Amino acid sequence: MRHDDKPRCAWADSAPDFPHYHDTEWGFPVDNDQRLFEKLCLETFQSGLSWRTILSKRENFRLAFQQFDFNKVAQFGEKEVADLLNNGGIVRNKRKILAVINNAKRAQEMVEQEGSLAAFIWRYEPDENSLPPPETQTTSEESIALAKALKKRGWQFVGPTTIYAFMQSMGLINDHAKDCFMRKEIDQARREFMRP
Question: Does domain 27-192 correspond to CATH entry 2.60.40.10?
Answer without folding.
Answer: no
